[in-house]
Amino acid sequence: MGTDTTHPEEHGATRRDFIYWTAGAMAAVGAGAVAWPLIDSMEPAADTLAMSTTEVDISNIPAGTGKTVMWQGKPVFVRRRTPDEIAEAQKVDVSTLRDPETDAKRVQKPEWLVVVGVCTHLGCVPVGEVPTENRGEFGGWFCPCHGSQYDTSGRIRKGPAPKNLAVPPYKFTSDTNIKIG
Prior knowledge:
The protein has 4 helices and 9 strands. It is an alpha+beta fold. 24% of the residues lie in helices and 23% in strands. The strands form 3 sheets. The chain has a 3-stranded antiparallel β-sheet with strand order 1-9-8, with no helix packed on it. The chain has 2 domains: 8-41; 49-180, Rieske [2Fe-2S] iron-sulphur domain (Rieske Iron-sulfur Protein), CATH 2.102.10.10.
């Protein structure tokens, strides 16, 4: 019985090297297994992604009225303005406004106004989408909680609200559809 006098070092790799490489590979796999659920949890939930945009059919909205849709859990007012409402909004001297903004900066097409229907004072929902509701002195929206009044461009004109009704990101996808978000 002969004894083996060869040493592993003579062949370039040691048993210890193999153990180090194996342990390193297992550590990498383990780190990936731990990191993947953490990274995946940072993605928006499916219900959040579903609310990120809203399509609105505007073909059935008569002039002078509006439609309220939900977008990201907030009401959005889509109003088809009459020529008189457009003229009223355009003739306002913006230097007299608390939150100066021209009507042209707030609309993409003069006939259509799209604003988030949340009062900028305390987050109430103003009334005025239906012509029979109180629209305040300026013909836009009226917040009955604290008396804020908005004009036909959604700009604050009277009351405690500090800012205009917000304009959400939107675009016309056709003559009869708007995509909000």
